[in-house]
Structure formats: structure tokens, C-alpha cells
Amino acid sequence: MINTDYFRNKKITIVGLARSGLACANLLSDLGSQVSITDNNDTEATRANLEKLKSKKIKSELGRHTPEFVKGQDLLVVSPGVPDTALAVKWAEEFKVPAVSEIEIAAFLCPATIIAVTGTNGKTTVTTLIGRVLEKKGERAIVCGNIGNPFSGEVSKLREKDFVCLEVSSFQLEKIRGFKPKISVILNFSRNHLDRYKDMREYLEAKKRIFMNQDKEDYLVLNYQDPLAKELSGQARARTFYFSKDGDFNPNQAAVLAVASILGIDRELVLRVFKEFKGIEHRLEEVAEVNKVKFINDSKATTVDSAIWALENMPGPVILIAGGKDKGCDYGAISALIKKKVKEIILIGEAKEKIKKSLSGCSRLSEAPSLEEAVGLAFLKSQPGDCVLLSPMCASFDMFSNYEERGRVFKQAVNLIKSQIPNHKQITIPNDQIPKLII
Q1: pTM of this prediction?
Q2: CA-CA distance, 138 to 155, in Å (whole number)?
């Protein structure tokens, strides 16, 4: 790492004790900082993470924010899920304590070349593929950020000649200051996170921060076919490269090819990586086939555009499981595709009423009180040749800690059904729990 002495004896409070907060706390403690943690939640997950702190010198409070954890500090590190309305963030402003994101800390310490990828959809796939391409070339590449391990949990392993393939969200970009990737990639923009941002312009402004510190020695890769992304070239100091889908490559692959071109990587090597790539967990992941019914885990699809992508790639009639925590999405945008490909929608979570209003008349609609029961109901209603697709179009936080947990629960429910079929056990749901058909 570089710049390690900077944090020695600094008084730093971390807001949020999820994965990135935990990783950052341990990193800064190892560097000699006086670390405190405050989290407004006191749950089984936060208490478990409290036990994972390396040093007993780290002060903590759960279930509240108090001004004592902010006043007089040198720095506040804000986890991605913490909005500006949180008391700790408001106190930081009042007490003149600088507030930054976890990726800002890690990037300041990072000696390696940073390739950062953002956009509404496709971030995980593109970031993963760039990492695979670099590894195929014989480089050492760490894939992290909003995918896998937090950046601050990986930075101590990095050397100057390495690469960081970093998936970054708008939330993570809100509080960067000096974050400066060598290559920034903006894949697309569509309606998303309007539960956090007042409008699309504010969401776009957060995404644009990915290139705000870049200069003429850096690169910005933009989607030529996305009007909002395309127009950003005039606002950047970095050298701009464009990508666009064509008959041979989808937008994700085209973006990877553009990055590979910048890095001087042979096109044939990239094509071999595409051919070998089997996808990523929770993104169009085929879980099982039971009685000729395929179960597809697309828990990563937290937007309408992601669900559209999923449906367009489904081979047969679809029973769609959707719903969760609404992010201000326009569910009506998927209505035409629902009419064409979806025989029934089973709704779960807080957003089910909003989705129901948007998609009424497009397909049969049912409700289920839990994801496990939605899977059971979908199987009961399925016929050979159908696909049962979990593509929620929503965040997971109303029912799960993250989309990974939601995907794991889906797979467990599917595998339970699969295990019962060979033994000729009947799949049943108690009558009082069978969701009522609403349309």
C-alpha cells in the first residue's frame, strides 16, 4: 500500500457496520487509526460483524447514532447504504468533519491501476469480465467493490503492477474526493434509485462523479447508444472511448472490448474469455430443472431494465417472481414484454401493490407472503417447458440483507423441491398460505 502513514493516530468514525464498514474499520485500525463505529441498526447481522473486528480498541455503538461519535473526529467514513439524512452525516456537516466513502479510503492507499465500472445495469458482468480478460493475459487482477469483497478489504494485497477491477455504485460515488481511476466505464443510465434521489438528474450527477478527477492521462469509456452517457464526453478531461452493441456483441461485451483495446489486449484473447464465461452467481443463473421446468436465479436484477434483459433471454413461457423494496422504478416499461412472454407473475415484498397497478391486465397476478412460498406456488402452476424466473426489479432490503441472500434463499427453495421429486414426495403448501389469485 501507499500513503499508509497518513492515517496513523487519526480519529476516524465509520458509519455503518455492513461489509464495507467492517472491512474499512479493520484496515484503518491496522494502520494505527483510532477507529469508532456507529450503526443505527442493532440486528443479528451487525452484532455478528461486531465480533469480526480485529481490535478491541475499536469503539462501537449499535441501534443509534450519538454526536459523541462524530464531534472532534478527523474523518467520517460513510457506508454506501447510509443516506445524507442520517444523523451522523448531519452532525459531521455541523461539526465540520469531512465525510468520505469507503472507496475513497481504499483508493488513497492503492498502488495498483484502478478500472472503475458504473451504470444502472451490467456493472457486475462487465467488471467480472474485465478481470477475467486481464487474468487471461497473465496479469494479476482483483475484482471487488460493489461486487464480492469491499475495496478496503483487498487493498493491502495489491502491488503497483496489479489491476483493480472495481464495480462502483452511485451511492459509493457520492462522497469521493480524490478518487481517480485510470479507466472509468459508464455503461448506461435508466430510471433507478429514485427512493434516494429526487430525480434522474440528481442520480446522473452522482454517477458522473466517477470521472470528475480524471485528466488527459486517463480514459473514459461511454456507451455511444445511450443518449445520457454519450453526451458526457464534453464534460470530461479524460480521453473518451465509445462502445456500442452490434450483431456480434451485446453492450456488456462491447464495453469489455473497449477497455481491452485501451490496455492493448489482443481481441482474440477477449473473445476466448467470452466463450469460456459461464456467467455470474445471481445473474441469469440456472439453478435446476425439475420435471422439465427450469428455475433461473436473477436476484441481481434490481431494476426494470435488468428484468427486461432477463426476459428477452428466456427460451420458454415464464412464471416471473418479482417484488421487493421499490426504488422508484417505472414498472410499466416492462408491460409489453410481460404480455409477450410471461404467463403469470407472483409478487412478493413491499412493492407488490405498485407493481400490481402498473402491470394489471398484462398477465395473471398472484401474491405470496415469502420468497419460499412464491417458489412453491410457481412450481405448482408450472408446466413442462416453463421457466420460473426470479427477476425482482426491486432492491432486497425489505426482506433480505442483500440480493445475494435473496438469491441463496431462492436456490434453497428450488433445491428443496428438486430433492422431493425423486422420492415421489408431494409438494404442498398449507391451504391458508397459498397466495390468493388476484387477477
Answers
A1: 0.84
A2: 20
